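Hi support team,

I've been running sequence recovery on a batch of backbones for a student project. Most finish fine, but this one hangs at about 90% for roughly twenty minutes before it completes. I'm not sure whether the input is malformed or the queue is just slow. I've pasted the structure tokens below so you can try to reproduce it. Let me know if you need the job ID as well.

Thanks,
M.K.
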């Protein structure tokens, strides 16, 4: 999720704990920081696109790092003058950190919960990475729980607990809705006599009203939109060619980012791209980030908004350079062969 939703969850955590911890000084600040600090790994983008793919939602979002981060934050809060015992600070920071991990796992991006022991990216794909309705409701409950300081702390704590309950319930409802849409869409395809290898439904902008549908059949991939209020409604269909992960791994032996992309992308696809004379260029992207729904299409068009790269190949199929999503070119050096050949 984006930072505002994480911050709202941290504020709710602080307010829920306040009467049980004796309303200590610095509790709100500690929970706010703990609820947002895992996303400091966005700074990985400064070290290049591959480093970002590898490490965003990586170690700082893992279960192994959670207790260490909670202890560090609790110790730092005490050093800065917070009126919390180390144990209370550890509890508060740990709960806020756990809330962050939960909110990221229920989105479609994927989170390395078991890093550094596993690089598996886990996702329940219940909500889009930006959900205005969900965020606004959490902020409203956090404001109500915080307002009226000094009066009826138990009532404010109950409001905060209700907010945390809603934080758990809303994604669960969306996950259930996703399963229902998938089943109904598969029945629609069966009625039309269409057969596909795999049908995947994932949240799109303004989910739960719009959902992305990815249909895979052999080398082909179709991406469209589903509306749970009218599953038979027709939306534009993007027709793509599935990328060969083995080919991506082959390219990855020449430039590691292609192997990283093969690991990262959920729905990799490939298409021809402009190339210099005598060369071939193939653009790779992940359909997870295509603007298939009406909202993102209106804002950004049909292109992918994240995680794409272009391979430039010579006549022998060898990688000579690659371009990142910003259009920056990265030459690929190959070791010289014995006798001065390349």
């Amino acid at each position: 999720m984006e930072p505002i939703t994480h911050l709202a969850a941290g504020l709710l955590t602080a307010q829920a704990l306040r009467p049980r911890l004796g309303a200590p000084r610095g509790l709100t600040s500690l929970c706010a920081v703990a609820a947002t600090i895992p996303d400091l790994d966005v700074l990985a983008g400064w070290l290049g696109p591959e480093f970002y793919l590898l490490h965003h939602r990586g170690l700082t979002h893992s279960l192994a790092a959670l207790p260490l981060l909670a202890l560090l934050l609790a110790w730092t809060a005490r050093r800065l003058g917070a009126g919390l015992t180390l144990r209370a600070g550890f509890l508060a920071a740990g709960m806020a950190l756990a809330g962050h991990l939960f909110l990221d796992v229920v989105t479609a991006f994927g989170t390395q919960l078991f890093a550094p022991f596993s690089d598996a990216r886990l996702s329940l794909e219940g909500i889009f990475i930006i959900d205005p309705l969900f965020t606004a409701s959490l902020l409203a409950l956090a404001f109500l729980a915080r307002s009226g300081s000094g009066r009826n702390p138990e009532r404010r704590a109950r409001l905060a607990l209700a907010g945390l309950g809603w934080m758990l319930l809303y994604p669960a409802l969306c996950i259930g809705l996703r399963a229902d849409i998938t089943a109904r869409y598969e029945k629609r395809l069966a009625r039309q006599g269409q057969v596909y290898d795999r049908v995947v439904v994932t949240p799109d902008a303004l989910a739960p009203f719009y959902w992305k549908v990815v249909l895979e059949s052999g080398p082909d991939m179709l991406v469209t939109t589903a509306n749970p209020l009218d599953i038979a409604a027709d939306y534009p269909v993007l027709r793509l060619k599935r990328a060969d992960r083995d080919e991506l791994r082959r390219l990855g032996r020449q430039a590691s980012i292609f192997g990283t992309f093969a690991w990262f992308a959920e729905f990799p696809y490939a298409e021809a791209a402009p190339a210099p004379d005598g060369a071939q260029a193939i653009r790779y992207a992940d359909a997870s980030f295509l603007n298939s729904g009406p909202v993102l299409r209106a804002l950004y068009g049909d292109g992918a908004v994240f995680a794409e790269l272009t391979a430039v190949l010579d006549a022998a199929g060898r990688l000579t350079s690659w371009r990142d999503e910003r259009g920056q070119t990265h030459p690929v050096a190959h070791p010289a062969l014995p006798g001065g050949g390349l």
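--
Follow-up from support: It reproduced on our side and the slowdown came from queue contention, not your input. The first strand starts at residue 198 and ends at 203. No action needed from you.
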